[in-house]
Amino acid sequence: MMNCFKITQWISQSQDVALSSTQKMSLYLHIKMCRKCRNYHQNIHFLRELMKKM
User: Fold this and answer.
1) Residue spans per domain, the chain
2) d(Cα 47, Cα 53) in Å, to the nearest integer?
3) In terms of pTM, does the model score above 0.90?
4) Which of 5, 19, 26, 28 is deepest in the core (most CB within 10 A)?
5) What confidence tens digit (pLDDT) does each residue in 25-34 have?
6) What are phi and psi of 21, to 5 degrees?
7) What's phi and psi for 53, nearest 5 deg?
8) What is the dihedral of CA 13, 15, 20, 25, to 10 degrees?
9) How far is CA 34 from CA 8, 15, 21, in A?
10) Minimal CA–CA distance to 1: which of 21, 25, 30?
């Protein structure tokens, strides 16, 4: 399993640029297993949508 620090970097990076297929798969698998990273991903998504509305 990837470490959470690297995964959170990829989550943030994915908001601006496309990730590679390998990164996407690793991210997906990690988020399925790690509650903290899943919450971080949801929060980043929520904030991005909120900023679009402003």
Assistant:
1) 20-54
2) 10
3) no
4) 26
5) 999 999 999 9
6) -60, -40
7) -75, -20
8) 100
9) 11, 20, 20
10) 30
